[in-house]
Write a structure and sequence with these properties.
The chain is mainly β and 101 residues long. The protein is built from no helices and ten strands. The protein starts with 9 loop residues before the first strand and ends in a 7-residue tail after the last strand.
Amino acid sequence: MAAKLKKGDKVVVLAGKDKGKKGEIAQVMPKDNKAIVDGVNISIRHTKQSASTQGGRLPRSMPIDLSNLALVDGNGKATRAGFRVEDGKKVRFAKTTGEVI
């Protein structure tokens, strides 16, 4: 099945503690059905200092389920992705506006 959400897409969070926040997908994990979004679902990782790295409390984006994410269309609102064939190529489009993503 073709991916509705891909790396680099602008998305909005639909559910959870970060509901309403917008960000860009940094990584998609299709096997786990999750994605990492910059600035969303932040947790604090406590790391020990070593010779090469500074220790402390480091904020880190954690994976969020794909079902809790929606694409952002040109108007800045959440939309679903659809597929259609244009000029012999399969493209994704926003269901609300109809524009190609």
